Amino acid sequence: MALTARSRPGRAPAPAAAGEPPSGAPADATPHEGAARAPRAPGADGKGGKGGKRKSVPGKVPWRLRLRRDRTLILMTMPVILLLLVFHYVPLLGNVTAFQDYDPYVGSNGLAAIFESPWVGVEQFTRMVEDPLFWDATQTTLLLFGLQLVLFFPVPIALALLINSVIRPRVRAVAQAIMYLPHFFSWVLVITVFQQVFGGAGIVAQTLQAHGWDGFDLMTDADLFKYLVTAQAVWKDAGWGIIVFLAALSAVSTDLYEAAAMDGAGRWRRMWHVTLPALRPVIALLLVLRVGDALSVGFEQYLLQRDAVGAGASEVLDTYVWNVGIQNGDFSYAAAVGLAKGLIGVALVLGANKFAHLLGEQGVYKK
Predict the structure, then answer these.
(1) Among the residues of the chain, which ranges form H helices?
(2) Which of the four, 55, 180, 225, 231, has the lowest number of CB atoms within 10 Å?
(3) What pTM value is reported for the model?
C-alpha cells in the first residue's frame, strides 16, 4: 500500500498557509509580520468596549452577595451596634449644651429644653479656665496618671514575661487564671477587700495590735491615697494586660530563641533581643491608648472613697464633672468640662501616635 505524502519518511512538511505558524511550532507562537489578525470582540479586553460589559475584579465579592452571606453575623452584632448608638453616639448631641445656659425646666422635657435654652457662646469655657477647683482636679488627675503610668503599666509586661518563662503548661494556666480573676470584680468589691485587709479594723491592723504595735488605717490616709488607688488598679486590671502580652508572645517563633541560644545568648540576652522587640508594637499601641486616657483615670473607684480621704485627695476630672453636673445641677458647665476633656484626650492620642510613628511603630493606625 502506497504511503501518503504526510507519512513518508524524509518528506518535508507541507508549507503553512499565510498567517499560520509552521508545523511543529508552539501553539502560542507569534505570526510573522504582515499576517492578518482576527478582530477582537467589543469588550473582550476587559475595558468595557462599545456594547460590552466591564470585567469583574478577581476576588471582589459583590456587596449583595456579602450581605446575604454574612446576614447571621450582622444580626448578631446588631445589639452591640444599638448599644453603642444609644449610650455613646446619641449622647454626643447633648454637647451642644456646653454653649448654652441649659435649663431642663424650660421645655416640656429635657430634649425640648435644648432648643429653648439661651445661647451663651464660650462663656462656660471661660468659667472653666477661671475655676481653681477645675485646675485642682486636673492636677490630681495628671498626678495619678503619671504615677499609674510608671508603677502600673510595666507590671503586666513583667508578669507576662514571668508566666511565659514557666515551662509547665498547667502551672502557667493556674497562675494566669488567678491573676485574671480580679478583673471580673466590681470596684465595690475591690474596695471592700482592701478595706478588710488594710482598713483600721482590717487583718493587718488587728495583727499588729495583737503583737503590741500601733495599728493603722490605710484607707483613710490622704497622703497615701494615690499609692492605694494604684495598688487597687494593679490588683484588678493587671491580669487583662497579661493576656494581651501573652498573646503577642505566642506569635514569636521558637526558631529565634534557638538561634540566639546557639549564638551563646543567655536567658537575659534572649529576653532583651528577642522577647522585648516582639512586644514593642503591642507596648506602643497600649501606651498610645493609655496616654489618650490620661484625663480619665477613673470614676467609680474615686467616688466610693471620696468621703474617706476627702475631696482634696480624690477629686479627679470625672468626679468633678459628676459633682457640678449631677449633684449641683449645672449641666452646661459640666458639659463644657467633659467636652474639653474629650478634645484634649483626642489630641493626646494623635500626638502619642505621631511619636510612635517616629519610633518606627504603627501605633493606633498607620501613616
Answers:
(1) 63-69, 71-84, 110-116, 123-129, 132-151, 154-164, 169-180, 187-198, 203-210, 225-250, 254-262, 267-270, 276-292, 300-304, 306-309, 311-314, 317-322, 331-358
(2) 55
(3) 0.73
